[in-house]
Amino acid sequence: MHEASIALGVLEIAVDNCRKAGYNRIESIRLKIGKASGIMPDAFLFAFNAVKADTIAAEASVIIDEIPVSGLCNKCGKDFVTEEKYILCCPECSSASFNIKTGRELEIIDMEVF
Where does Zn(2+) bind (predicted)? Predict the structure, then answer.
């Protein structure tokens, strides 16, 4: 379950930035997680809740904004958005030549701190 190591990394980044800015408590963390990132949000939340104990984020909630996969087809030139986690061809023309624009994100968007 790689979500545990990812949750630990997110927690370390959040705690380090919070302390550097002079805050002592994290109330919430908002994340962007792309559907094609390979991260299962439920598994991430479970892992995060396990690793946050005894830290300044012990009571923190995590808000996840799931980002759909979007791309641009190199053959037909169409932009597309899909709720699928994996895409093998353009939904418009079935070409396998496309560029992914969104869906692979893992970003801390903001934190509520005190």
Answer: 73, 76, 90, 93
DSSP helix/strand/coil, 9: helix
76 is in an annotated binding site: yes
Q: Is there a binding annotation on residue 93?
A: yes
**Which is it for strands 61-67 and 26-34: parallel, antiparallel or unpaired?**
parallel
pLDDT in tens, 2-18: 899 999 999 999 999 99
89 is in an annotated binding site: no
For each of the domains in the chain, give its residue range(s) and CATH number, in order of start: 3-113 (3.30.2320.80)
pTM: 0.89
Q: Which of 112, 1, 5 is nearest to 59 (CA)?
A: 112
- Residue 27, SS3 per DSSP: strand
Which of 18, 13, 21, 16 lies closest to 107 in space, CA to CA?
A: 13
- Say if residues 106 and 14 touch (Cβ distance below 8 Å): no
Annotation-wise, does 90 bind a ligand?
Answer: yes
